[in-house]
Write a structure and sequence with these properties.
binds zinc ion; Quinone Oxidoreductase, Chain A, domain 1; alpha/beta; 27% strand; six-stranded parallel sheet; binds NADP nicotinamide-adenine-dinucleotide phosphate; single chain; Rossmann fold; seven-stranded mixed sheet
Length: 354
């Protein structure tokens, strides 16, 4: 049995998103069905809609920063009930058997996790469809709980934590960022602004690298001690050999050497952005002289995502958002491409029910 969902999809790399109806399964014993209230707009939605990673299957329904209310649960579900406020992030399943799954690192599943969109669905055999839609059905093991500290009016700002928040929290924790760490954040967009907030809450000294001078005052309000205009070599040189960790959230290819030379000995440049085209090959000298590393990280595991939500609730953190009706999504993508977002678009899914 299935139910009909109203969503938004596009049907080719050059086509805009438009209304699209499709079916979702009725809850199986371990499933949770939720009405989606808000869905954040991640740059990965845009990369995928435009087939920049060359793996998009159309029609494509984006959205993996989902907050909603449970409407139905399967017969075996004990942890959730109708009426609960819950959230769904970038994954809806994984193999559950490989070493990464067993260590609560489902994002590194050997079989690849089932992503919330553009992934092969174990149940239907078709592709998964994301949160630009009125409701979704997800296995209970991949559903998060919205901490009770958040009020109804906070929920739009909670949605982006499900990708932007966890994608920053996981590497900051893995590389043990805390008091005494000097952390660089490259790019002030959806991910970058959460990196500043979370690194600051962890006690680090945070410096933003931006191409947008107009974002300086905001970055300081978010918790950055210093802001560097990355196009200015003189400003960059002031920070040579001084960072423990730099997290690079830029959505376009760029020269990494400008950042590796800012690392201390043993420092790490962690790549998060997934641009359409590869970065130029990095300078080896910058790495061997100083034993510096270039690393990467993808989202976070389900257990860690709950830990991140609880951490953000405790520290009163949520995203800075601009709410849009779904009808403005194509305009929002245009603005995201111009780095003109402060600092995350969130779709009010009520606009899809009208
Ligand atoms: P976003 O909101 O568009 O922010 C990207 C920021 O990068 C922009 O605000 C801009 O910051 C900077 N930027 C853009 N174009 C640039 C250019 N040509 N040169 C230098 N800087 C530029 O995007 P997002 O949603 O935060 O996502 C960022 C990237 O992370 C995307 O590639 C996305 O797919 C990827 N991502 C990865 C993961 C993961 O798990 N690894 C998870 C989510 C997203 P300034 O104006 O401050 O320069
Ligand atoms: Zn995302
Ligand atoms: Zn696995």
């Amino acid at each position: 049995m299935t139910s009909t969902v109203q969503g938004y999809a596009n049907d080719s790399a050059t086509a805009p998103l438009k209304p699209y109806r499709f079916e979702r399964r009725d809850p199986l014993p371990h499933d949770v069905q939720l009405d989606i209230l808000y869905c954040g707009v991640c740059h990965s939605d845009l990369h995928t809609a435009k087939n920049e990673w060359k793996n998009t299957v159309y029609p494509f329904v984006p959205g993996h920063e989902i907050v909603g209310r449970v409407t139905k649960v399967g017969s075996a579900v004990k942890a959730f009930k109708a009426g609960d406020l819950v959230a769904v992030g970038c994954m809806v399943d994984s193999c559950r058997e490989c070493p990464s799954c067993k260590e609560h690192l489902e994002q590194y599943c050997d079989q690849m996790p089932t992503f919330t969109y553009n992934s092969s669905d174990k149940h239907s055999g078709k592709m998964t469809y994301g949160g630009y839609s009125t409701h979704i059905v997800v296995d209970e093991n991949y559903v998060l709980r919205v901490p009770k500290e958040y009020k109804e009016e906070d929920l739009p700002g909670v949605a982006p934590l499900l990708c932007a928040g966890i994608t920053m929290y996981s590497p900051l924790r893995h590389w043990k960022i805390g008091k005494g760490s000097k952390v660089g954040v490259v790019g002030l967009g959806g991910l970058g602004h959460m990196a500043i907030k979370i690194a600051h809450a962890l006690g680090a000294h945070v410096v933003l690298f931006t191409t947008s001078p107009g974002k300086t005052a905001d970055a300081k309000k978010l918790g950055a001690k210093d802001v560097v205009i990355s196009k200015n070599p003189e400003e960059m040189k002031k920070h040579l050999k001084s960072f423990d960790f730099i997290i690079d959230t830029v959505s376009a290819d760029h020269n990494l050497d400008n950042y590796t030379e800012l690392l201390k000995r043993d420092g790490v440049l962690c790549l998060i952005g997934v641009p359409e085209h590869q970065h130029p090959s990095p300078n080896i000298g910058n790495l061997i002289f100083g034993r510096r590393s270039i690393a990467g990280s993808i989202i976070g595991g389900i257990k860690e995502t709950q830990e991140m939500l609880d951490f953000c609730a405790k520290h009163k953190l949520k995203a800075e958002i601009e709410m849009i009706p779904i009808q403005k999504i194509n305009e929002a993508y245009e603005r995201m491409l111009k780095s003109d977002v402060k600092y995350r678009f969130v779709i009010d899914i009520a606009s899809l029910r009208k």
